Every structure is written in C-alpha cells, then in structure tokens.
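Worked example 2:
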Amino acid sequence: MARRIFVGDVQGCRVELERLLEAVRFDPAADRLEPVGDLVNRGPDSAGTLRLARSLDAGGVLGNHDVHLLRVSRGRRTLRSGDTFGDVLDAPDRDDLLRWLADRPFFRDLGGDVWLVHAGLDPRWERPADVLADCDPFAPCEAGEFAIRVRYCTAEGERPKHDDPPPGAPFAPWFEHWRGRRVPTIVFGHWALRGLVHEPGLRGLDTGCVWGGRLTAWIAEEDRLVHVPAERAYAAFGD
C-alpha cells in the first residue's frame, strides 16, 4: 500500500533523515515523502539533504529557511550569522538544487484529507490553495510570509510583533482558530519550542532535531508517528 510519509523540519540534518527513512521502511517505489518545509539551514548538510529529497522525488512545501536560502541565492537577502547553507550556494549542482527547491509550493492539498503547510494558516482563508497559489518564493508575499512564519494570531489573522506574545495578549496559537471546522487534517512544522502536536485534525511535527531533539515522521495511512533522536545539537536553540 502506498503511504504518505510526512517529516518535520529537517534543517540540514541529512543523517537523521536517512535514519528516519530506514525506521519507517521507506519504499521509493510506493511511498511519498512530504517534508513540512525547512529542509535547509542551521544543520550540517543542507546540500546533502536537498540531494536526498530530490532523489526521492519528494513533495513537501517551502519553509522560512528555504525561502531565505532562495532569496540569498538571488541577492535579495544577505547571509545571517547562523546560516549554514553555504554548501548549497557553493555546490556544483547549485542551480539544480535551487530550482528543485523553488518548485515547492507554500501549501499542498494532499488527496482532500490532508493539508500541508510549514507554519500555519490564516483563519480567514477558506481556500488556502487559492490564496497561496501565486506566491513567489523570490518576492515578498504577505500570504506566503504568514504561511511560513505564523505561530500566534488573532481570529482576524493579525500576528503579534514578537513570536511569543505576553500573557493576556489577544493572540492564540493559529490552529486554535481552526478547531471545529470541517477541514482536512492540517500537518505543519516550524514550532520546535511547542514540540509535537498530535490532536484531532492537527499534526505538528517540528520536534527540534537541529537543536538536539528528534526528527519525527507521521505516516498518514497508518496514523503512526516515528521518531529518531538527533545525533547532537547542531545549533543553539532559536527560530
């Protein structure tokens, strides 16, 4: 039986991704790999991670670190002190890797029973696929920025100025505004501090591998979670 294997934020942790694929007994001829975004950055092997995902014809969506890499590659952003995707920019197959990454969308509707996004969805979006369809990863896009960065928001889609708003602020985790709606299961990442979310209609898979946590997969057809521990912490905890 073909399976959809959703994988949390890899962030250049290629070795852990390989171990996770072994743990789920990934079959390239039958299974489909669907990363939640942030394949690159902060970890030790962004280029190797992209090569592996590309070789497996992975689907997946863009994350904020992926978009950052793409914009740096075009000179539309500058490198930051913690960036570790220089191996992609210097790779002999750089153009192929960047082209493949740029082809990832901001949102996927997978079979009508699963929605995939990196960070989250604006509560006002009745049709996320339509809203995000024309977002260009190389250019500013308000909806795209929301999809790759949101953690907290209001029911009107307003985001706080800081990632973690103070207690009592009029913000809640974005997915609280989606509870009770008749929508597919939403799979997302981007929130290592919160960790695993396994609730009705929600699968949050960022379990902080790059920070020394673990890499997590959710097998949709089996509703089963599989984890492998990080070999070490590759970066100090942060975004």
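The longest strand covers residues 214-219. Helices lie at 14-23, 46-55, 64-73, 86-89, 94-102, 128-132, 142-149.
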